[in-house]
Design brief:
The complex is a heterodimer. Chain A has helices spanning about 5-10, 65-70, 110-115, 120, 125-140, 155-170, 185-205, 215-220, 255-265, and strands at about 20-30, 40-50, 55-60, 80-85, 90, 95-100, 175-180, 205-210, 225, 235-240. Chain A is α/β, with parallel strands linked by helices. Chain A has a domain at about 100-170. Chain B has one domain (about 60-260): MetI-like fold (Orthogonal Bundle). Classes of the chains: A alpha/beta, B mainly alpha. The interface of A and B includes residues 97, 108, 142, 158 and 170 of A. Chain A: GO terms for molecular function: ATP binding; ATP hydrolysis activity.
């Protein structure tokens, strides 16, 4: 596969940042609505992600996992603390980041290829080279032949795959994923998980993956950050030592089950987690 | 590749299925039944032909009109008035609507006046316009412009605000500027609304021109309608009404055609009347 990999280009980058590519420390987030009490959404969040690492964030509904991801993406401001990506403070969206959303959010008036090209287009990157990359990415996720189709002609799973290509087209160092497969049926979801690991292996991005599915987090991740119910604070960071590459049969293995059980124990009584 | 998906078959020729689209038969059938009933049932019911002329008489009158050079002169005048007024009204609404939807201060300053002016029955202004702008085409153009302005304005404002928050957020993550968000999401989202405004506006513009001609004019279809009325030429009146309807229909289908070409992703958009 001729996809330019991030791992290859990354080795030349600063050696010190290699250890912790994403740094979050003492992060607090309050929502202060004008006419009601402030909500404490995130409390004292601290963790680091190494370059090329796959880290998932799990927690019950409303624990602030999406808020955390939006702060990492520079979409909403933090209240206190440190948020750095490749040594830079995150205050607004930075081009080193690609994001995959809960729904594919493809623009219905653009073809799949035109949708995938959006990051390159808004960042003023070379159109010809990135169009080539976009085609390669689409082919990598099994969407060759669909470049000139419109989103409504694709199934939900195919749309989400196009959304992943869009997040990767500008070759970002970091990929943030916000429950990207939550809307898909169980079969498609498992399939997409396998696909994602393959894409990750080939492209080498650092991934922060938010999900409410513990088994999904265990299957995908190097480490799982477990958040407690609101205000979200870190209950545990669980390293998943299951080796790589991983096969879908791992999901139902005893080894994975041990991790799932250990994480689930944090939510006994907390509800709202599958 | 774990999954190969065949691209869907390209361009199937649309076949007319009567079970799916019964209106293809039913619409002409209703026309035939109504016209036949009108032609042959009024005589036995005792409705005089000079009060409600028969379709055959209207057709004869229409044929006579269409052969008359003077009639084409009237049609041409009304057409010019409607189109000129329409273009002015619609262009003004586009500019003002964009400003209102994008600049908070403009909205807050102008909205009360617009709401106040919108409640004025515009048709009631026609006598005033004739006094101000005379018996010529200008007063009718102003009337057509004013009356087509409001439905267009409402749709432009609503359409430019209708952009999906998730889509805007997606563009923001990838580093889009406000101008890029406007061009890539807000404007395309507004297009179906704008076409709805254009569609209502053209019918309103013809209405405005004809009403203007009622009040004071020496030519135009509105003037011709009054002349036939004074002469108690009822079938002549019907002939003019038929021409006016055809005018409106042609304009409507022209705009629908453009909409399907340009805003192809939204077949049925929310239409906002005024």
């Amino acid at each position: 596969m001729a996809i330019r990999t991030h791992r290859a280009s990354a080795t030349a980058a600063t050696g010190t940042a290699e250890e912790s590519w994403i740094e979050v420390g003492g992060l607090q987030k309050f929502y202060r609505p004008r006419r009601s009490e402030p909500t404490h959404a995130l409390s004292d969040i601290g963790f680091t992600v190494r370059r090329g690492e796959f880290v998932s964030v799990v927690g019950p509904s409303g624990c602030g996992k999406t808020t955390l991801l939006k702060i990492l993406a520079g979409l909403i401001p933090k209240s206190e603390g440190v948020v750095r990506i490749s040594g830079r403070d995150v205050r607004k969206p930075i081009p080193e980041v690609g994001m995959v959303f809960q729904s594919a959010t493809l623009l219905p008036w653009r073809t799949i290829l035109q949708n995938v090209m959006i990051p390159a287009e808004v960042q003023g990157l070379n159109i010809a080279t990135h169009r080539k990359r976009a085609r390669e990415l689409l082919s990598m996720v099994g969407l060759d032949g669909f470049e000139d189709k419109y989103p409504h002609e694709l199934s939900g799973g195919m749309q989400q795959r196009a959304g992943i290509c869009r997040a990767l087209v500008h070759d970002p160092a970091v990929l943030l994923m916000d429950e990207p497969f939550g809307a898909l049926d169980a079969m498609t979801r498992e399939h997409m998980n396998v696909e994602l690991l393959r894409i990750w292996r080939e492209s080498g991005q650092t991934i922060v993956f938010v999900t409410h599915s513990i088994s999904e987090a265990v299957f995908l991740s190097d480490r799982v950050v477990v958040l407690s119910p609101r205000p979200g604070r870190i209950a545990e960071i669980v390293p998943i030592d299951l080796g790589r590459p991983r096969d879908i049969s791992l999901v139902s293995s005893d080894a994975a089950g041990v991790y799932v059980k250990r994480i689930r124990e944090h939510f006994n009584g907390a509800g709202a987690i599958d | 590749m774990t999954m190969t998906v065949k691209p869907p078959a390209t361009s199937r020729k649309p076949r007319i299925d009567l079970r799916e689209r019964p209106e293809i038969v039913l619409v002409p059938a209703v026309f035939v039944v109504v016209v036949a009933g009108w032609e042959f049932l009024l005589e036995p019911l005792g409705v005089e032909a000079y009060v409600l002329p028969r379709p055959s008489q209207i057709a004869a009158s229409l044929g006579g009109q269409l052969g008359d050079e003077l009639f084409w002169r009237h049609l041409w005048v009304t057409l010019q008035e409607s189109l000129a007024g329409y273009l002015i009204g619609v262009a003004a609404a586009l500019v003002l609507g964009t400003l209102i939807s994008q600049i908070r201060l403009v909205e807050r300053t102008l909205m009360p006046y617009i709401v106040a002016f919108q409640t004025v029955p515009k048709v009631a202004l026609a006598p005033l316009f004739v006094v101000w702008f005379g018996f010529g085409m200008t007063s009718k153009i102003v009337m057509a412009a004013v009356i087509s302005f409001f439905p267009m304005l409402v749709n432009v404002v609503e359409g430019l605000r209708a952009a999906d928050a998730d889509r805007i957020q997606m563009l923001t993550v990838f580093g889009a500027s406000k101008a890029q968000v406007f061009r890539l999401v807000r404007l395309p989202t507004a297009l179906p609304f704008i076409f709805a405004g254009l569609d209502i506006g053209i019918v309103f513009a013809i209405l405005g021109a004809v009403v203007g001609e009622f009040i004071g004019a020496k030519e135009g279809l509105g003037y011709l309608l009054l002349q036939t009325n004074y002469n108690f030429d009822i079938s002549g009146m019907f002939a003019v009404l038929v021409v006016l309807s055809v005018l409106g229909l042609v304009a409507h289908f022209l705009i629908r055609f453009l909409q399907r070409r340009i805003a192809f992703w939204a077949e049925d958009s929310r239409v906002i009347g005024a």
